[in-house]
Design goal:
By secondary structure, the chain is α+β, with helices and mostly antiparallel strands. The chain contains twelve helices and nine strands. Helix 1 packs antiparallel against helix 6 and helix 1 packs across helix 11.
Length: about 325
């Protein structure tokens, strides 16, 4: 593991300069992400915003027929307060904020969406879902248990639903880089980076049949950051579904990354390891704040790492041979 940076953030969610811990076997990722971080400082900093946050668990219930399934799911939409009362029996931090339903034949798929404080929330929403199943089946005797997870969550699988309805922290990080800094630090131009982003990330991903995704390598930075901060690494599957957007603005480069599904927590399983505690402490994610604030801070810093690495890689790929030369240099030293 190494720390890179610092990266500079200027709000509105997080302000300051932070060294980012990254644990990876892809050694060129460290200098590449560090280059992006240096650009963030030279350009005056990045803005970051958490657009939304929620964790989900979908359950599967069975009904005798489609008529009963449809009637029950329609009725549930108007009983959120009662459902939240059931959730409150499982955790003081879990809050039910919405639900979505799908009926397939006699099958009821119910997607519960909750806020979970500073925890990533996998176990918290599952415990809540267990309680909700019991409550629903008692209220609707025609319904019976099918599964605690109906795959409409969607947990650790690529899908469209998570980006549309939300799962985790929805984070956008953006910055404007003066043309002279693009030339100095990235050995490229704003126009070249914008052109490559469109042709590679958007057209190329479309040709490949990508699902709600247009980026070069979000997964690399997310995995390295997740491992260094004690996160469930399998969440990079939905986490890496996101968008890189770039524009030329008065000769300068506007560059942003949008990550709809950043699933992180500052408390919970894996967070008690010494190196994880050290990294979370260094990032300011173990402070006394309102519930959920430390997890939001962590999500922003994860997305900032993605911004740095994504910018650096795209810039490198505008130059013939640069990517391979970097790998040969860093992986053979």
């Amino acid at each position: 593991m190494q720390r890179v940076g610092p990266v500079k953030l200027i709000g509105p969610e997080v302000e300051g300069e932070f060294e980012l811990p990254l644990a990876t076997y892809e050694s060129p990722l460290w200098p590449s992400t560090d280059r992006g971080a240096r650009v963030s400082v030279a350009a005056g900093g990045l803005r970051a915003v958490v657009v939304d946050e929620r964790m989900t668990r979908s359950v599967l219930l069975t009904a005798p027929d489609a008529v009963a399934a449809a009637a029950a799911t329609r009725d549930l939409q108007g009983r959120l307060d009662e459902l939240q009362a059931a959730v409150a029996q499982t955790s003081r931090f879990a809050k039910l904020i919405d639900l979505h339903t799908q009926v397939v034949g006699n099958l009821c798929f119910i997607r519960f969406e909750l806020t979970t404080g500073d925890a990533a929330g996998h176990n918290m929403v599952t415990a809540a879902a267990d309680q909700l199943i019991q409550w629903i089946c008692a209220q609707y005797p025609d319904l019976s248990y099918g599964s605690i997870s109906g795959n409409y969550c969607t947990d650790k699988k690529p899908s469209a639903v998570n980006g549309i309805l939300g799962r985790g922290k929805y984070v956008v990080v953006e910055g404007v880089i003066p043309e002279r800094l693009v030339t100095r630090y990235l050995k490229s131009t704003p126009a070249k980076i914008v052109d490559l982003n469109w042709k590679k990330n958007w057209i190329g991903t479309s040709l490949a049949g990508g699902i709600r995704s247009a980026n070069a390598h979000f997964a690399n930075m997310l995995l390295a950051f997740y491992l260094a901060t004690g996160q469930d690494a399998a969440n990079i599957i939905e986490g890496s579904q996101g968008f890189t957007h770039a524009e030329v603005r008065d000769a300068d480069l506007y560059f942003s990354v949008t990550l709809p599904n950043v699933i992180v927590g500052s408390v919970g399983n894996g967070k008690d390891l010494d190196f994880v505690q050290d990294n979370l402490q260094a990032l300011g994610c173990l402070e006394e704040r309102e519930p959920g604030a430390n997890a939001r801070r962590l999500a922003v810093l994860a997305a900032a790492a993605v911004w740095c690495g994504e910018l650096s890689l795209l810039a490198a790929q505008t130059n013939p041979g640069e990517l391979m030369q970097a790998h040969l240099k860093w992986e053979r030293e």
